Amino acid sequence: MTEVRWLDEREQRAWRSLMVMQDGLSEFLDRQLRTRCGLSDADYQVLAHLSEAPDGRLRPFALGGLLRWEKSRLSQHLGRMEKRDLVVRERCLTDQRGSVVVITGRGRELIEVAAPQHVADVRSAIIDLLTPAEMRTLEAVGDKVRARLEQLESGNPGIDPTE
């Protein structure tokens, strides 16, 4: 068994700062969406992906992959969105066993209202606050962590970070 490498004071501050920032930003953006448009962040993500897809249609497995959601979470959330007439599920014409998620007219109207306000909130909360150099650093850190997570999730940890 290897010895635990506890975080030192600087590492602890950085980690906690990241967690507080992430939680605070998510809560702020979700609250703004709910207050202004009646959409949750999850609703917004689904509608944004569908609105960007050809004909506003995606197979559930493709949508789930974009959202990084488990199949059951996606199915339950789509059910709630169907009840609110934001999306419909239709039979897939090329695979009779499959389905396609389609944005409705009401869903498209809501995302078209929400998107400009959401982008303004993102700009106000983070984008316009950072310098171009800070934006490049944020992007580089995000890319580096995402790549590492893919390595770890694939069971290929690669190099030992302690070396």
From TrEMBL:
- Domain HTH marR-type intervals: 11-147
Which Gene3D superfamilies does this chain map to? Answer: Winged helix-like DNA-binding domain superfamily/Winged helix DNA-binding domain
The domain of life is: Bacteria
InterPro entries named among the record's database cross-references = HTH_MarR-typ, MarR/SlyA-like, WH-like_DNA-bd_sf, WH_DNA-bd_sf
Protein name as catalogued: MarR family winged helix-turn-helix transcriptional regulator
